[in-house]
């Protein structure tokens, strides 16, 4: 049997996908009606969630389905957490800690994590200021891609030719990821047959 294999010369890089934006968010408290939990997942860095001025406090997002969590990005307002955990849950009741710190820095904190769950929350246990916890954005990401390219080979179908006569066949291939160079190899070629 003749086999023609076409592969991309390099794999597409893995891409991060934001899961939390626009999803339902809840919190242990809000400072007032101007700072609801939904502000932390609206994609707008001009709106924020702010909690009551006490410990502990939490902000939770429901992703709608269980997902593999690979990164959490916290964009803190000046009222940030020095001690907090990132936790995941499948039911919104039983939590697994996938990140923990007692030396939170505020600003934008990008945390590379490994976890799975439908619900993801920031659970704050120590505030940096006398105010509450306040997040401009709470981004929960998963990683996709990285080798998932689809290479489509278009076979010209059955062809007849006369023995001893040169034949030219065109086989086309396309990669689903743009910018890829395709290479080919062939096995099972009869003696005297070449592919170029």
Describe what this molecule looks like in 3D.
The protein has strands at 3-8, 14-18, 25-27, 49-50, 57-76, 81-89, 96-101, 108-127, 134-145, 151-154, 172-175, 182-187. With 196 residues, the protein is mostly beta strands. Strand 6 and strand 7 (96-101) form a beta hairpin. The mean pLDDT is 84.
Write a brief caption for the model.
The chain is an all-beta fold. It has no helices and twelve strands.
Radius of gyration, whole Å: 26 Å
| Share of β-strand residues | over 45%
How many beta-strand elements? 12
* First-last Cα distance: 19 Å
How do the helices and strands line up, and which of them pair or pack?
Blueprint: E1 3-8, E2 14-18, E3 25-27, E4 49-50, E5 57-76, E6 81-89, E7 96-101, E8 108-127, E9 134-145, E10 151-154, E11 172-175, E12 182-187
Antiparallel strand pairs: 1-12, 2-9, 3-5, 4-9, 5-8, 5-9, 6-7, 6-8, 10-11
List keywords for this structure.
single chain; 196 residues; mainly beta; two-stranded antiparallel sheet; 0% helix; rod-shaped
């Amino acid at each position: 049997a003749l086999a023609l294999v076409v592969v991309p010369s390099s794999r597409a890089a893995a891409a991060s996908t934001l899961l939390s934006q626009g999803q339902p968010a809840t919190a242990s408290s809000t400072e007032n009606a101007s700072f609801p939990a939904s502000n932390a997942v609206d994609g707008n860095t001009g709106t924020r969630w702010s909690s009551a001025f006490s410990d502990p406090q939490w902000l939770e997002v429901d992703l709608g389905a269980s997902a593999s969590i690979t990164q959490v990005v916290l964009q803190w307002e000046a009222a940030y957490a020095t001690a907090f955990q990132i936790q995941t849950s499948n039911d919104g009741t039983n939590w697994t800690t996938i990140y923990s710190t007692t030396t939170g820095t505020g600003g934008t904190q990008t945390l590379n994590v490994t976890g799975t769950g439908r619900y993801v929350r920031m659970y704050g246990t120590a505030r940096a200021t006398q105010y509450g916890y306040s997040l401009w954005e709470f981004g929960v990401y998963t990683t996709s891609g990285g080798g998932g390219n689809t290479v489509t080979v278009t076979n010209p179908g059955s062809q007849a030719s006369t023995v001893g006569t040169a034949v030219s066949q065109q086989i086309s291939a396309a990669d689903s990821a743009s910018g890829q160079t395709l290479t080919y190899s062939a096995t099972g070629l009869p003696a005297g047959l070449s592919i170029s």
